Amino acid sequence: MYIPKNRIKTNLYTRGNEYQKISNGEEYIGYYWSMYNGNLFSGKNPNDQPSEQIIKIVQTSNIEKKESENLDFQQYAANYDGEVIPGQYQNIKDVDDYNRIRGVDIASTQLNPQQYYPNPTEEDYINGFFIRYFACKRNETKYLELDKNTYEKMKKNDITYNYIPYVITEVQWTLVGEARDVSQANLNIIDSTERKINKLGLKEFIRNDFSKFYKPQSIQSNLITDGTVYKNSRTGLAYSGSYHIHPDKGPMVGAEHIKEYHDYLVPIS
Questions:
Q1: CA-closest candidate to residue 27, choices 198, 164, 137
Q2: In whole angstroms, how large is the CA radius of gyration of the chain?
Q3: Are strands 143-146 and 88-89 parallel, antiparallel or unpaired?
Q4: 227 alpha carbon, distance to own chain's centre
Q5: What is the pLDDT of residue 179?
Q6: d(Cα 126, Cα 173) in Å, to the nearest integer?
Q7: What is the pLDDT of residues 160-215, one digit of tens each?
Q8: What is the 3-state secondary structure (H, E, C) of the chain?
Q9: Cα-flanking dihedrals φ and ψ of residue 76, to 5°?
Q10: At a CB cut-off of 8 Å and minimum separation 6, what does 88 contact?
Q11: CA 127, CA 213: separation in Å to the nearest integer?
Q12: How far, in Å, CA of 249 to CA of 233, rounded?
């Protein structure tokens, strides 16, 4: 790639304790060059390969101190009060009190992204889709699902978040339509996302549940399952046979929906 000389500075040098590789966070020592927009790259110039992007070292002495002392602390987005686990919400005052008691200075603590469990809104179902956000460790196949606020901050390289070890991405997740079409559309987008970020494992992370959050517009009757997809929520046993999908109650035992009680089905994890 040709870059005009007046757009770059070459043959710069750092002795260390100044820059780190964006790919893995390792300290960088050696020659580097800079773009007109402030982006920095290893090597004497663009032709000095291999070259990778480097950034200023983020000082996170507080979080390193807490981890080295084997102390735990609570992390949160400043105005976030969403689900931490399904049905449970953070109380920001409680988090503040906890950190004060533990002696954690949030102002100098870098936040690790936390697992988020999305819940589509009625507006999302009207639109037919919603956006899911994911992060994966760069050096291992370890995924998290993020809330939008955390995703946006990490995307902007907000130094209050420990963004360097992660590659992040967003996915348009289909919610309504024919069941088979919805599942195929979501499978396709996950396949495409794995290729885009050059990381496998996202399908396994979502447990290959491409119908997650699916909401049929009417009862789907006379369906058949072979025992590898659903289990009985009451007994916990794999279920094979006839089932139907209720638009509000989800998959249920039996070919047709009836007024009498009949068991619910849940995906096999």
A1: 164
A2: 24
A3: unpaired
A4: 30
A5: 82
A6: 13
A7: 788 889 999 999 999 988 888 999 999 999 999 999 999 999 999 999 999 999 88
A8: CCCCHHHEEEEEEEEEEEEEECCCCCEEEEEEEEECCCCEEECCCCCCCCCCEEEECCCCHHHHHHHHCCCCCCCCCCCCCCEEECCEECCHHHHHHHHHHHCCCHHHCCECCCCCCCCCCHHHHHHCEEEEEEEEECCCCCEEEECHHHHHHHHCCCCCECCCCEEEEEEEEECCCCHHHHHHHHHHHHHHHHHHHCCCCHHHHCCCCCCCCCCCCCCEEEEEEEEEEEEECCCCCEEEEEEEEECCCEEEECCCCCCCCCCEEEECC
A9: -160, 160
A10: none
A11: 14
A12: 12
Determine the Cα–Cα distance for residues 133 and 146; give it in Å rounded to an integer. Answer: 5
Q: What token pair was written down for 105?
A: 């200075």
Task: Please return the burial class of 104, using the count of CB atoms within 10 Å of its CB with bins 0-12, 13-18 and 19+.
Answer: buried
The one-letter amino acid at 101: I
Q: What is the pLDDT of residue 117?
A: 92
> What is the rounded average pLDDT of the residues 117-126?
90
Give the integer Cα–Cα distance in Å for 242 and 254.
Answer: 5
For tokens 């032709």, what's the residue?
Answer: 47
What residue spans define the domains of the chain? 5-56, 60-109, 111-215, 220-267
Write out the two tokens for 231: 């289990």
Q: Which residues pair with 250 in a beta bridge?
A: 246
Tokens coding 256: 């047709």
pLDDT-derived band at 246, boundaries 50, 70, 90:
confident
Backbone angles phi, psi at 74, to 5 degrees: -90, 140
- Rounded to 5 degrees, φ, ψ at 164 are -60, -40
